[in-house]
Amino acid sequence: MDRADVDARIRSLIEPFNKKGVEIADASTFAGDLEFDSLTVMDFVAAIEDEFDIIISMNQQAEIENFGQLVDAVVKLSGN
């Protein structure tokens, strides 16, 4: 699975969490642009972990601030 595939799958997963209908770009931040609170982040991360069968550690989560970083992290964790 390449970056574009991961990007598309994450975009479909983020939709129910994107309450304000913000247009998603690599630079879109979860806290600022999407206004995710900590509970939303936990639910969203769980959905990603289930979808890709990966574990995103708390340390990794702390380093991921925007959509592009998340896509890159999932690609790396998926072994692609």
Question: What can you see in these coordinates?
Answer:
With 80 residues, the protein is an all-alpha fold. The protein has a single domain, classed as Orthogonal Bundle (Non-ribosomal Peptide Synthetase Peptidyl Carrier Protein, Chain A). It has four helices and no strands.
> What CATH first level would be assigned?
Mainly Alpha
Tally of contiguous helical segments: 4
At the fold tier of CATH, the topology name is: Non-ribosomal Peptide Synthetase Peptidyl Carrier Protein, Chain A
Distance from N terminus to C terminus (CA atoms, Å) equals 6 Å
List the uncertain runs: none
Question: Which structural category do the helix and sheet elements fall into?
Answer: mainly alpha
Classified in CATH, the superfamily is ACP-like
Share of helical residues: 55-70%
Q: Please give the CATH architecture.
A: Orthogonal Bundle
Largest sheet: none
- Rg estimate, integer Å: 11 Å
Count of folded domains: 1
Q: What does the average pLDDT come to?
A: 95
Q: Can I get a quick summary?
A:
The protein has a single domain, classed as Non-ribosomal Peptide Synthetase Peptidyl Carrier Protein, Chain A, CATH 1.10.1200.10.
Key attributes of the depicted protein:
mainly alpha; Non-ribosomal Peptide Synthetase Peptidyl Carrier Protein, Chain A; 4 helices; 80 residues
Topology overview:
Blueprint: H1 3-14, H2 38-52, H3 58-63, H4 67-77
Helix pairs in contact: 1-2, 1-4
